[in-house]
Amino acid sequence: MSEQVLEKDLVSAVGHDIQDTIDTPIDLEATFRESHVQEILDRLDQELVGLQAVKNKIKEMAALLLVDRVRKSLGLTAGAPTLHMTFLGNPGMGKTTVAMRMAEILHRLGYIRKENVMLVTRDDLVGQGIGQTAPKTREVLNNAMGGVLLVDEAYTLFRPDNPGDFGLEAIEILMQVMENQRDDLVVILAGYKQQMEHFFHSNPGMNSRIGLHIEFNDYSVDNLMVIAQSILVSQHYHFSRDAEKAFREYLIRRKAMPHFANARSVRNAIDRARLRQANRLLNIRDRQVTRDDLMTIEAADILASRVFRDGVPDCEAES
Ligand SMILES: Nc1ncnc2c1ncn2[C@@H]1O[C@H](COP(=O)(O)OP(=O)(O)O)[C@@H](O)[C@H]1O
Ligand SMILES: [Mg+2]
């Protein structure tokens, strides 16, 4: 239904009846403006620091989808674009965030009925015993239908070392639905680059159903600093000059340790620094606390981390 509404919108945006438009130039820019997709792209730009290559790809995809819609409204049919995607990259890179914006774009352009992203992992799809996986996977797919299904760490569905693994059943069903109901469900498979490449190599049928591969390359320390600053600003905090230096040093060390999760680790580190700051402030006895005190993260709030004291992350479970 949303498809019809959009086509009507597009035709009215173009300002002509379909029959009359065959040789009439089309104001694509106006059509793009009226789709309000730019607002979503802008929001993505604000939400996520860096990731220029990812943002460019999303923009290109949006352009393709818009042009496809305009062409279709003029009777220029082509195969429907393959909308299933894969997001390759380490944890905390913004993959889930991008998936949510992508769903909004697909919805605005009338490719899906609802802009929901259903987030699942292997455990949501695969059962423990014989006969459990198919109904489990089907139920998830039914609930996701009309929107986007994001399978996180999708490579875990394939366990070649365990030939009887039920993950294969989930893969089979997923592939069928990706083929047969491609006009009503967009599947995004996310996960570590290497593991996902191995997954696609072993499951070529899956690979051939994917229209867009997007790589999320790890953030540099400079990028992570910008992410930290933007998180702080949004929370009405800032680093003192020494704290900024300490945090940079923290990132350099933390990045080299296990379970580093990019922007998510930055967010967690800032949460812990806030905790230490609060305790430090409560221990000030000789004076009253100022507004600036309440806003400032000092070097001490960073340097108390186990990363500096013991050379290990504060929270081993962080992923
Ligand atoms: N480039 C970025 N700039 C600012 N915040 C980011 C960036 N990338 C990720 N984040 C934040 O990090 C957290 C994890 O992001 P998420 O989209 O869940 O990553 P992933 O799905 O790759 O693990 C979220 O709070 C998100 O807002
Ligand atoms: Mg995620």
UniProtKB/TrEMBL annotation:
The keyword ATP-binding applies. Residues 81-220 form the AAA+ ATPase domain. Keywords: ATP-binding, Nucleotide-binding. One of its GO terms (molecular function) is ATP binding. The keyword DNA-binding does not apply. Belongs to the CbxX/CfxQ family. This is CbbX protein. The lineage of its organism: Bacteria, Bacillati, Cyanobacteriota, Cyanophyceae, Nostocales.
